[in-house]
Amino acid sequence: MKGDDGLTVTQSLTRRLKNPELFDDLAGVPGRKAEQSTRRFSVFNPSTGELLAELPDMDVRDVSKAIDKAEAAQEHWAALTARERSDILWEWHQLILDHSEDLAAILTAEMGKPLAEAKSEIAHAAAYLQWYAEEANRIYGETISPPSNDRRMLVIKQPIGVVGAITPWNFPASMVARKISPALAAGCAIVLKPAEQTPLVAGAMFTLARMAGFPDGVLNLIYASEGDAVGRELCSNPKVRKISFTGSTEVGRLLMRECSDQIKRTSFELGGNAPFIVFDDADVDAAVDGALQAKFRNAGQTCVSANRLYVQSSVYNEFCDKFTKRVSALRVGDGFEPEVAIGPLIDKCALAKIEDHIRDAVRQGGKIRCGGNRIGESGTFFEPTVITDVERTMRVAQEETFGPLAPIIRFNDPDQVVREANDTIYGLAAYFYASNLKRVWRVAETLEYGMVGINTGRMSSEAAPFGGMKQSGIGREGSRHGLEDYLEMKYLCMGGL
Hints:
This protein is an alpha/beta fold. It is built from 17 helices and 22 strands. The protein folds into two domains: 9-270 and 473-491, Aldehyde Dehydrogenase, Chain A, domain 1; 274-461, Aldehyde Dehydrogenase, Chain A, domain 2 (3-Layer(aba) Sandwich), CATH 3.40.309. It has a seven-stranded mixed sheet with strand order 12-15-16-11-10-18-19, with helices on both faces. The longest helix is centred in the first third of the chain and has 21 residues, at 115-135. The termini are far apart. InterPro entries: Ald_DH/histidinol_DH, Ald_DH_C, Ald_DH_CS_GLU, Ald_DH_N, Aldehyde_DH_dom, Aldehyde_DH_Superfamily, Succ_semiAld_DH. Residues 36-491 form the Aldehyde dehydrogenase domain. Pfam families: Aldedh. One of its GO terms (biological process) is gamma-aminobutyric acid catabolic process.
């Protein structure tokens, strides 16, 4: 299949990387190309430091014009039948699958994760598009029994309107699909700002979206090196009816304040501090497997990463020995190299944070069982690290590390460990391993988290609601519930019948 420029999609994506000025038209902001070309920002490969692209550094005027364009497209997009919207989403889904190798390569180049993980993420992104292509046809209203025979009462659901979405760098493809596919299915136009560290795969996905047949103005992409001005414009512009953001709790608080003057609808997926609990009746080998998944996927740079590992005393030594052996065998390197399990951290600030956490833990008596050091002098690679004899007072037990560091805390009292697991402002994800059915139910219901993995270290699915409690967010993404966040409920009462 060929695009508008007469090239195959593979050639087109490669050409865009080599000639990043071709990304300019994706934002759909007419009349700004000349100005955009004078302000640009760079995208680098975190594994090698190689310059990948220089993209237009868009400003508030660009954001405002993109919002105007989305508003102009909103009425037509919402007026299409659910089946028509569904068909376009299906086509986009298929194009992403057809060109998953290209997309995965771009993702690994700009983010660094191992190519196998990048391919899995692209498949996950496509799964969200497929799910919401199906859900678009299942937006239902309801009828209500009236109090008298001269009236009829019913509820309909309509798209909320233009949506501003801000996505993070750690899952730059799946987060794009997870945020905008339900909005598109509901009938909403989009203005998306991807993370400045990883904008290229989003641009490639939008190229495929254009080929899939989305009308002009329905999808609008904003490239910017700084998110503050973009976020403020999206939050303050009254034409934007909803904000969807994934990122830190600190930034989420700022966006919520910006949205408060207009009582704007928000969906936030924010920070986490996930506990991973291994009880004495657990299958220890299965728990080790699950901990490796929950802790070291994407080099620990996930919002649902296991941040605190609690292990009951009677299985503590066995777990630590087996876990440390497995962690020591993880290969670190460039994501394009074969058999690499751990890629680079996103930047040097991430390196500094993990080193601070290790120093603090060791100073308070923590023992490094493996890892603990940077790899190389100039890159952002870090050894997968296990620290035992961890205490609650250590920073690594209080803060989200967002890196390949696993702190293990010994516990004796099963009830107390659940209280400790809940003792945080965050409530995104939690994990535990146990076999006693009574314990499983009690712990699952007591943990104050929006998602709980029971005897599994991986639970994300397009069919399940993803989101947190407390200061880990508002709303849910994925599942049928994710669609509701982009719909307004309207009550109709017809009298005089």
